[in-house]
Amino acid sequence: MRLSSSTHTADSLKMDANIVVMGTESVGKSALTVRLLTRRFIGEYGDIESIYSHSFMVDERRTTLNIWDSPCSEDLSVETSLFEKKVQWADGFVLVYSICDRASFNSVSRLIQTIKSTKDYLNADKAPIVVVGNKRDLHHRRTVLSEEARLLALNTGCHFCEVSAAENYHSVLMMFHGLVGRIKGAKLTTKRPLGFKGIVKSMSAVFARRRTDSF
Ligand SMILES: Nc1nc2c(ncn2[C@@H]2O[C@H](COP(=O)(O)OP(=O)(O)OP(=O)(O)O)[C@@H](O)[C@H]2O)c(=O)[nH]1
């Protein structure tokens, strides 16, 4: 058995991320969350506001997601302090609409604007936000084209995918994994004040560059 050589090594192999699932009523927020946690689709979900914890391995790194699933009511009243609290708490966002419900799609578009004006992402082209068109199995009742949602995601620097919580566990898993990747990227680009070591490193980098430039 191989033991980690230090706490630092163990820590660098761990990642914690807070994810908020938002969207209008009955788009399948709980269904997606429960699918990820249990691999099951149980059909009916209560109106319970909860933060669930879920761990899995990504690239040999133990990743723990804290997923905040809530009924839609507060998500739309974007002025509330709860909304503000959720946005500040979250490292990443799953914004859900139903492909059969245009109003739910319009509300995702508003949510993106509000989140982006509340959070200051350095890498705005790769915001840790995934736009999720759920209920793909109901394609015969579709009112939102995939192309529209893809365009919205492209224009706002979000990721996009269509899934069916009812029919497919794998695509739901991939959606959450994709978001974890974006969160990692966003964390790396967050500006942190430089400590003494950081300043020394930056200065060495500048001098090293000067030395190479002069050849
Ligand atoms: N056909 C189909 N039905 C789904 C899918 N996902 C969820 N549903 C159904 O849609 C209804 C609402 O699902 P929920 O997961 O409770 O939706 P929600 O967004 O959490 O709803 P609120 O908590 O009320 O905001 C339920 O009857 C689910 O069975 C899906 O992918 N396909």
Distance between the termini: 49 Å
Mean pLDDT: 81
Which class of secondary structure composition applies to the elements? alpha/beta
| Share in helix | 40-55%
CATH class: Alpha Beta
Pfam family, one: Ras
Keywords: GTP-binding, Hydrolase, Nucleotide-binding
Organism: Notothenia coriiceps
Family: Belongs to the small GTPase superfamily. Ras family.
Report on this structure.
This protein has helices at 7-12, 29-38, 73-76, 81-89, 102-118, 146-156, 169-188, 196-213, and strands at 14-23, 50-58, 61-69, 92-98, 129-134, 159-162. By secondary structure, it is α/β, with parallel strands linked by helices. The chain has one domain: Rossmann fold, CATH 3.40.50.300. A six-stranded mixed β-sheet has the order 2-3-1-4-5-6, sandwiched between helices. Strand 2 and strand 3 (61-69) form a beta hairpin. The longest helix has 20 residues, at 169-188. It is globular and about 45 Å long. The model is unreliable at 1-9 and 191-215 (pLDDT under 50). The protein binds guanosine-5'-triphosphate. Guanosine-5'-triphosphate (GTP) is lined by residues 23, 25-31, 43-45, 47, 71-72, 134-135, 137-138, 164-166.
Topology readout:
Blueprint: H1 7-12, E1 14-23, H2 29-38, E2 50-58, E3 61-69, H3 73-76, H4 81-89, E4 92-98, H5 102-118, E5 129-134, H6 146-156, E6 159-162, H7 169-188, H8 196-213
Parallel strand pairs: 1-3, 1-4, 4-5, 5-6
Antiparallel strand pairs: 2-3
The structure holds guanosine-5'-triphosphate (GTP).
Guanosine-5'-triphosphate binds next to helix 2.
